[in-house]
Amino acid sequence: MRLEKPAGTYYLFFPCLFSTLLAACYTNPTFLPVLATSTLFFAGALIMRGAGCTINDLWDRDYDPHVIRTRLRPIARGAVTPFHALMFAGFECLAGLGILVQFPTPCLYYGIPSLILVTTYPLAKRVTHYPQFVLGLTFSWGAIMGFPALGVGLLDDATALQAVAALYASCVSWTVLYDMIYAHMDIKDDAKVGIKSIALRHEKETKIVLSGLAVVQVGLLAAAGATIGASPVFFVGSCGSAATTLGLMIWKVRLKEVGNCCWWFKNGVWFTGGGIASGLLAEYLFGPHQDDHVDTNAALTGVPR
Q1: Is the pTM of this model over 0.85?
Q2: What is the mean pLDDT of each run of 10 residues along the chain (305 residues)?
């Protein structure tokens, strides 16, 4: 489950948190359902990140022994058989389903299709130089979930749907950005064993690509906020912090140094993700609609008081 390497869990959780807080800014529920929903999302991220790792290791069991960073993974070193790993992945998915059913029923319809991406992402690196885009579609899925989790029907509310679409696309851009940095850690081994990545395809212009992704991410994040009528609190707090932290990371990261790429990958999740979440939380707590709350039951059912 990679519990000793929690960055992946945080990267999976933050889109869920962004969506929950953006939905909270839009619907203005009381704080309890926002906290409860965020807690459930974190538990789900922890479990499903573990399931994704297990599935990834199953697909990559013939590649991992040849890559320095991955050669000691349980399946790669023979500590766990593929059959036992498959059984464990099934258990993890069932545990994830147990959490998913704690949400309002529409979340089932939005959440279950993500399993297709979870199980097929590892194949992308075999057929395209842009597997990070597929990973972005997978890891950003939580950006869709916050609104229905707080009772907002996406198919019934065009504003919410537009905001979610912009937020999801923003999170996809963020995922491609940070995973491009992550891919530089394995770039030599990937080239030897035939694994494709965006880092290999654009090795000589990586920072230009990263800069473009950052502009797209922040622009789409701003579009999501503008769609719901966010105040300057959001644009300064979330968009401003994202632009600042991403710019700093792109400027400072040393792509030829594995340790430095690893440091920025592990800490960038807090710099950028934490900044965006803090801005959204401030918008929810102190924005112009902070006194216009609905009660807890209304927030969970989507019916205003």
Answers
A1: yes
A2: 80 97 94 96 93 83 76 81 87 92 93 87 86 93 96 94 98 97 88 86 95 98 97 97 97 95 95 97 84 46 37
DSSP-derived letter for residue 186 is G
Measured in degrees and rounded to the nearest 5, phi and psi for residue 216 equal -65, -45
The token pair at 221 is 């994040």
